[in-house]
UniProtKB/TrEMBL annotation:
PANTHER family: PERSULFIDE DIOXYGENASE ETHE1, PERSULFIDE DIOXYGENASE ETHE1, MITOCHONDRIAL. Keywords: Hydrolase. InterPro entries: Mito_Persulfide_Diox, RibonucZ/Hydroxyglut_hydro. GO terms for molecular function: hydroxyacylglutathione hydrolase activity; sulfur dioxygenase activity. This is Hydroxyacylglutathione hydrolase. It comes from the Bacteria. GO terms for biological process: glutathione metabolic process; hydrogen sulfide metabolic process. It comes from Streptomyces griseus. Its EC number is 3.1.2.6.
């Protein structure tokens, strides 16, 4: 389970799905997540079982800790999971962001 970013305009079942399936929950290291997770930072690589790798690439914009995950097979990039990286600034639900 991979989260590109975490903030109040998203309601997901990521943590619960990871718990039920036994999957790791990869979350950007700078995200404020109080639950169990595997923190990932720019450049970190995680191998999925004995196969493909996921490389974390910092892509701040929509939120400072936003991270893209690049999927590689045998070292060659084949896909990128960008999440909400094309949204600039707080454009979704600014009323949910803590003003402090």
């Amino acid at each position: 389970m991979v989260a590109s970013h975490v903030h109040n305009d998203h309601v997901t079942g990521d943590l619960e799905l990871a718990r039920i399936t036994g999957a790791a929950y990869l979350v950007p290291a700078d995200a404020n997540v109080p639950s169990a997770r595997v923190p990932v930072s720019d450049g970190d690589t995680v191998t999925v079982e004995e196969g493909p790798q996921l490389r974390a690439v910092a892509t701040p914009g929509h939120i400072p800790h936003h991270t893209t995950s690049v999927l590689a097979e045998q070292g060659d990039p084949v896909a990128a999971f960008t999440g909400a990286s094309l949204l600039i600034g707080t454009v979704d639900r600014p009323d949910l962001v803590d003003p402090a």
